[in-house]
Design goal:
The chain folds into 5 domains: about 5-195, Beta-Lactamase; about 220-385, Beta-Lactamase (2-Layer Sandwich); about 390-565, GAF domain (Beta-Lactamase, 2-Layer Sandwich); about 590-650, no CATH class; about 655-750, no CATH class. Helices cover about 50% and strands about 15% of the residues. The strands form 5 sheets. Strands 15, 16, 19, 20, 21, 22 and 23 form a 7-stranded antiparallel sheet that branches. Strands 3-2-1-6-5-4 form a 6-stranded antiparallel sheet, with helices on both faces. Strands 9-8-7-12-11-10 form a 6-stranded antiparallel sheet. The protein has 24 helices and 23 strands. It is an alpha+beta fold. The longest helix has about 55 residues, at about 160-215. It holds the Pfam family GAF.
């Protein structure tokens, strides 16, 4: 791309970015990332933003808000400290990556060229370089009116000379300067939300530390650590590790010694699964842990042993420094045997005696195991509970306020824009309430006569809403249950829409079918139907990078939100759908219809059997008649024109259930006559037609019921002959009997009835 074209594209992006509302943080950052790629020619970049420190923290960090060319999970879980310092607080060991080039560029407020990235004398940068395969990088601070907002990094997997970076440095500086104020607005808008989320994590660690103190107070342990499963730059993408989330100790010095030992360069602050350096990971492997999941049934069971039994280097150092002689390890796994977290207790001699007294089983139960189960329940409530902060309340109020402002969106001339802006505003607030990392709202619509959940139509035209790291085209997904759709067509949203129930999936990071996830890299996802009466009109689909993230309380909250916004979402969808039909009839141009008239037409269109072309022709006749007879100067089709047309017509209101029931019954009657008259085989008319989704489950069921009612003795063989499954001479014929068995299995396994 020539420099002239680069400048033109960059100018377009600046206009687009500065014209976007600060709410759309992901869209803005994606456009900035586009600009970085266009200007530099390098396809890999990272955008770090720095927000004011959150409550209880004196440390400012660079957070990776947007990455391109890398694994989202790997980079986004790693914060970078702007200053090298100590642990965040006294009860948690979580600490961002330190000693990096990114932090140096942030502090200096000057561009920094790292030509040999992994060879610099900075430990954090070396780790980044090795994990992300960065050989060279241009680090550019984001500055607005003297305030450093963050750092952008343009990366290369090859050694790149400074002259290459210098060739686009000035253009890049101009581009970033032009969008700096908008970025400042984005940070100011989102800072309270993100600060509250960080404070919430700190409070979770604090609550967990109070829970860990209970066994210490009882004399069972001297040091307790809660280790949570993580994937980050130091562990690598394929091997999980355990990082300290919360800590409690009898003596402050023991905590410091544990901290210092784990922070040693040999261990890098985490326990990597598969390592023999730690008692916990060694014990996990003894139990059959294969770096991914447990292969044996030994899980959620405490293990008590002497530190010398394993001779692990980390615990040997701890024993020398602090005098620990034994440990209790309690790993917690899910149903799929994936490790969620682990609690480790380190014991000195006095505590060992007490724990040994708890090991013998009393009435078949170990007192130690009972205490660990109670501890697990309390920790689960902290880790997987709904936010207790004011964020939930604040943004629930915002959702109600947006819902009350429905008319603002309804009056927009661009009807699709009114619908999508309403849904986007709702979605962003839902994501704050739920804490999700990405999400979509899709509307239910027909494509080629079949029902789909649609976020985007062909050509990237958004009719729903999407937020988070979703920048590619979102394909529509079929609505249906596992019994109605092929496996490759199944999706969480589609099943939820078909059944009208909330669906939650956990531990889905290994699922190949991306239709189950709103965006890549998610470990939990939830689908919530927006319903009006018995009809599903839209779907909310959220994703999180954390396992078991969407609790029952979150589900109840999302269900309540869907009920609040359902009626207004329905009105906007109806209006959009009728506007699309009107556009088709009028060659891409709207006739002059007033807003209230279009709303009324949408209501009629969805409530009655309307032949829309004829009905519109009648409306236009009434419109012309009104203008001619009354010399009315109003050039628009008015509400009165549509009401007059409606009163002159004889429309019947749709009873959808009766209509569908009658349609299914008519189809079943036709197929039944074909089968009984031997005009078609059962396999072609029912079984194969059902697998191609040409007939519904109800039709297949009705065909069977009609045969059952007709025959005096409805045995399965008699029904099979009656429905042309096999010939009358089936006795003694192996092939014919196989057909009868396939017929039986079709109804049992596919339709769900036992015959």
């Amino acid at each position: 791309m020539t420099k002239t074209l680069q400048n033109e594209e960059a100018t377009k992006l600046v206009t687009l970015i500065n014209g976007t509302d600060a709410t759309y943080i992901n869209a803005i950052l994606n456009d900035i990332s586009d600009g970085l790629e266009i200007i530099s020619g390098f396809p890999r970049n990272r955008i770090y933003l720095s927000l004011p420190p959150w409550y209880g923290s004196m440390k400012q960090v660079l957070e990776p808000f947007h990455v391109r060319g890398y694994s989202q999970q790997l980079v986004k879980t790693t914060l970078i400290a702007t200053d090298d310092g100590v642990s965040e607080n006294s009860f948690s060991l979580s600490r961002p990556l330190q000693k990096t080039q990114e932090a140096k560029a942030f502090r200096s407020s000057k561009p920094l060229m790292a030509v040999e990235y992994a060879e610099v004398d900075m430990e954090g940068s070396v780790l980044l370089g090795e994990a992300l395969d960065i050989k060279s990088s241009l680090l550019f601070p984001l500055i607005s009116e003297g305030r450093v907002l963050g750092v952008v990094a343009i990366d290369s997997p090859e050694q790149t000379g400074q002259d290459v970076f210098l060739s686009f440095k000035d253009v890049l500086a101009k581009f970033l300067g032009a969008i700096a104020r908008k970025l400042s607005e984005v940070i100011d808008y989102w800072a309270p939300v993100i600060q509250e989320r960080r404070a919430e994590e700190v409070m979770k660690a604090y609550k967990a530390s109070l829970i860990l103190e209970l066994p210490i107070q009882e004399g069972m342990a001297d040091l307790a650590v809660l280790m949570v499963s993580s994937v980050d730059i130091m562990c690598g993408e394929r091997i999980e590790c355990l990082v300290p989330f919360s800590l409690a100790s009898r003596e402050e010095n023991d905590r410091k010694l544990f901290d210092e030992t784990l922070r040693d360069h040999k261990y890098t602050g985490r326990m990597i699964l598969g390592s023999r350096s730690f008692v916990l990971t060694s014990e996990l492997m003894e139990k059959g842990h294969d770096k991914v999941k447990f292969t044996s049934e030994a899980s959620n069971t405490p293990s008590f042993f002497s530190l010398r039994d394993f001779a692990c280097s980390f615990e040997i150092e701890l024993e020398k420094k602090a005098g620990f002689t034994a440990a209790i390890c309690y790993p917690v796994v899910d149903r799929q045997k994936n490790l969620l977290y682990a609690v480790i207790f380190y014991l000195k001699q006095k505590a060992v005696k007490m724990v040994k007294a708890m090991l013998p089983k009393v009435e078949g139960k170990s007192l130690l195991k009972s205490k660990m189960k109670a501890l697990e329940s309390r920790i689960n409530a902290v880790l997987y509970g709904l936010s207790a902060s004011s964020l939930v309340t604040d943004h629930l109020i915002k959702i109600c306020q947006v819902n009350k402002r429905y008319e603002d969106f309804n009056k927009m001339k661009d009807i699709r824009r009114g619908l999508t802006e309403f849904l986007h505003t709702i979605l962003y607030n839902i994501m704050v309430v739920s804490g999700a990392d990405c999400g979509t709202i899709g509307v239910l619509g027909n494509i080629n006569g079949k029902k789909y959940v649609i976020v985007e139509r062909e050509g990237g035209i958004v009719v729903g809403a999407k937020a988070g790291d979703i920048h590619n085209y979102i394909r529509p997904v079929r609505v249906g249950t596992p019994g109605e759709l092929l496996t490759k067509e199944l999706s969480l949203s589609g099943m939820s829409a078909a059944q009208g129930k909330i669906k939650v999936a956990h531990g889905i990071e290994g699922v190949e079918n991306d239709r189950f996830m709103p965006c890549p890299g998610m470990k939990s996802t939830i689908a919530v139907p927006i319903r009006v009466g018995q009809e599903t009109i839209a779907m909310i689909n959220l994703g999180s990078r954390k396992k078991y993230f969407f609790s029952e309380k979150t589900q109840k909250l999302l269900e309540m939100i869907s009920e609040i916004v359902g009626a207004n979402v329905h009105k906007l969808i109806m209006k959009y759908e009728v506007s699309v039909e009107v556009l088709k009839l009028y060659g891409g141009r709207y006739p002059y219809i007033k807003n209230d008239a279009l709303n009324y037409l949408a209501e009629l269109y969805h409530s009655y059997f309307i032949d829309l072309p004829k009905f519109l022709d009648d409306i236009l006749k009434n419109y012309k008649s009104r203008r001619r007879d009354r010399k009315d100067k109003d050039n628009h089709i008015t509400l009165k024109d549509i009401k007059t047309t409606y009163l002159d017509s004889s429309l019947e209101r749709i009873n959808l259930e009766e209509y569908l029931e009658k349609a299914d019954n008519d189809i079943a009657n036709y197929i039944y006559l074909m089968l009984t008259n031997r005009k078609a085989s059962f396999f072609d008319a029912v079984q194969d037609a059902y697998s191609r989704h040409d007939i519904s489950r109800n039709v297949a069921l009705l065909v069977y019921e009609k045969a059952k009612l007709t025959l005096a003795k409805p045995l399965v063989t008699r029904i099979a002959v009656h429905l042309n499954v096999c010939s009358e001479n089936y006795k003694g014929n192996y092939d014919e009997k196989k057909k009868i068995e396939r017929f039986r299995q079709f109804y049992k396994k596919t339709i769900g009835i036992k015959i």
